[in-house]
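User: Structure tokens for this complex, please. No commentary.
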Amino acid sequence: MRYDGAMTEPVPWLDARERAAWLRLAAMVELLPGTLSQQLERDADLSHFEYYVLAMLSEAPDRTLAMSALAQRTNATLPRLSHVVRRLENRGLVERSGCPTDRRVTMAHLTPAGWDLVVDTAPGHVRHVRSLILDGLTSEQVDQLHEITAAILDRIDPRGCMVDFYTDPADTAGGTAAADGAPEAKTA
Amino acid sequence: MRYDGAMTEPVPWLDARERAAWLRLAAMVELLPGTLSQQLERDADLSHFEYYVLAMLSEAPDRTLAMSALAQRTNATLPRLSHVVRRLENRGLVERSGCPTDRRVTMAHLTPAGWDLVVDTAPGHVRHVRSLILDGLTSEQVDQLHEITAAILDRIDPRGCMVDFYTDPADTAGGTAAADGAPEAKTA
DNA sequence: GCGCATTGGTTGACACTTCAACCACTGCGG
DNA sequence: CCGCAGTGGTTGAAGTGTCAACCAATGCGC
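Assistant:
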């Protein structure tokens, strides 16, 4: 399983700048998920991923989405989503039902209780995201972060599955009032 | 467990720019760990975290570090590290031994087999990191990434535990030839 | 209309992380 | 020198993610 004993090509080692940037990125990727989940677990007994699932449903038309569509929007594999939705269903936050037109498909629907939970949880979560990420960055850095993450995602997730749902300039004018996709209160 | 029913303070919602940057960051944080581990698992049957542990040991004086020091350098909790090191020890890549001066402390030492594995694996890993992250960014963006991640880490990890070990300008001149801390071949 | 590959989704087993409890040791206050 | 709080580390149980296997339904080729 060794990589390749012979020196096939000179390895383009990282220089100090690259190394420092990469080590910090790695540290952030390691630390951020836990930090995000802590606040949500305390306030709503939800992991960040669970919140994400509920939030995406809360924004969908009819608060309903096919499992595979939901998986794309949440960057999850289908098995993972299936397990999580089952747990959320047991808590009465989500309901599953078959799709009449294509009976392979399972639709996930946000219940009123699930909606209420998202509505109650969103403000605190937005505040938390703001205080962790955005408050420490200048306006230029937010734009830079946007560009950089877009570039990296292109290479990590070639199909660009997720991520580009809310990039459409349609609502750029109105100013979407959501983090992770908080519910749009007006449509409630 | 609802967040806070009453409208205490107006929630500073995210605008379109902030939201887009945040959603991409969240997606990246979700997707990157798996992508990183895949390559290492294929080439060396190591998760990214396991590689990180071996790499940090490979750079330490005498290739040895106390468990708690190693935990800091790898952004891990002590229980997590303890489990992982036990597995690595079972594979003969690491050895544990008591510390004579403070008998509470456990020292973790990289075995020759562990060293060889890191040496063989590092080039492929560096190439992978380069192709995933750095090749898609301009030189300016690498610096921006450095600044942005530093700012975020300040807020996530107030104690700044890890991360600042290799920021010291001492070796900026020599150009450390490491990603995640690959072994410094010259010292071998 | 009959195969058959493909899609959508679920399940169970296994691996890993987290959390709380716990033990051993240190070092400080009296 | 004793008691005790704090540190360093390990362990086992419980929760979560991943992977492979599987099933049902679709729709295409013929």
